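Researcher: Go.
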Amino acid sequence: METLNYKVLSETGYNGYILKDAPVKVMQFGEGNFLRAFVDYFYDIANEKAGYNGKVKLVQPIGNFPQMADWINEQEGLYTLYLRGSEKGQKVDAKRVISCVSDCVCPYSEGKWDEVLALARSEDLEIVVSNTTEAGIAYTQGDSQFDQVPPNSFPAKLTRVLYERYKAFNGAADKGLVILSCELIDNNGKELLKCVNQYIDQWGLDDGFRKYVNEDCTFCGSLVDRIVPGRIRDPKEVAELEQKHGYADPLLDVGEVFGVWVIEGDTKLNDVLPFRKAGLESRVFVTPDMSPYKKRKVRILNGAHTGFVLGAYLAGFDIVRDCMHDATVLGYMNKMLLDEVVPILPLDQEDCKKFAAAVQDRFNNPFVNHELMSISLNSTSKWRARNMPSFLEYVGKNGKLPTCLTMSFAAYIAFYSNDVQELTDKGLVCKRAKGNEYTVSDDRWVLEFYNEHKNDDVPTLVHAVMTNEQMWGQDLTKVPGFEEATVKNLTNIRENGALAAYASCL
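Model: Structure:
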């Protein structure tokens, strides 16, 4: 079977939206599954719905897999995207052939860095997008030189690209670029700008260029939210889809239906970027401060995971989706979110309720088997970052304990202390009522703490956990009634099981 390209696609009779020829307006550092299922999907929609008429050129940030560029170029930038999941309780399995990608370049291949610099000099270029992983935005003195082909780090490559553009247009202010950083670190845009300024210092570049970078270019932080499983691993399903499509596509990508991209910057950027015009304003938008949206994601989405999965696992569940089909676990999660988390968030309440409702759909994804044990990794720091702020703010606002979040803390302790077997190199081995052993993964000092306290009675264990300021940054016994409630809840979990304990919250 022939591999996907424009000619092959045409021969299959495909009647979806396709844009074959358009100028390259976006330079994208990163060619992986996430960017292709998220950023490039939104640009493809912008081409169709807003007449953006722009292509995205992909640049590989590292040179360890140059074959990827070859594969993308062999397919002329085309690939199939499936958005799969649940929306308003209904199963969704939507196919789209993405045509906004022009090609891909590996700058480590001979002559290809020149191709990147040539694009930097283009009148058509407007945007740089990046997702180079959490480690990508970093400055290491001496690791990259100005005349290196190419410089090692991503910020060094970007500095060189911007300098090339600055020189080509004699520093013209209206030729500045918008840089959209998607890396999963705090203040990603500001950190990237900081690194670029460090390379300007290291390379001794002129003050005019520094002004161009800091005043004429726009570095935006952003928050990205879409789960992207990526390629389909079942050979049988791959073969079935090839027959259905009429072509082979090694670049086929899969993402969940939900997707939100919050860009931090001047709201005037809404007029520069094509997404609002494309009717995507609820999914891709610019805001002067994205911290409330980050808080929304951490407290609702991530907080829901950490808030219910540990107790759910002890109750015998293994997969997130199965939890959504149990009235007790689902009721517990929804009560925690709608009664205890959403009301204290500094955003429009209806918007937060919609986001919380979408969480249920996302967790109920029929195409993703998300294991509770994989979510349980490092739950101590996760509970502190995701759930404790909601817990403390609720207490501060209402003068009483939040029922479900209080139970969630007891479930956390139960998970880390349930019939402890041994401490191994891999983690703390415990046993659940279902009969199987499971391994708790966390910082070594956390695991050693729970191993040392494995023979404690409930009140002693709870007191030791709550007074451990290394874990929580404070003494949690000082929260009125919290220690007594946790002793009661942990006793309930141990005596009656986690499901019954969750039910007692409803």
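Model: The two ends are 56 Å apart (CA to CA).
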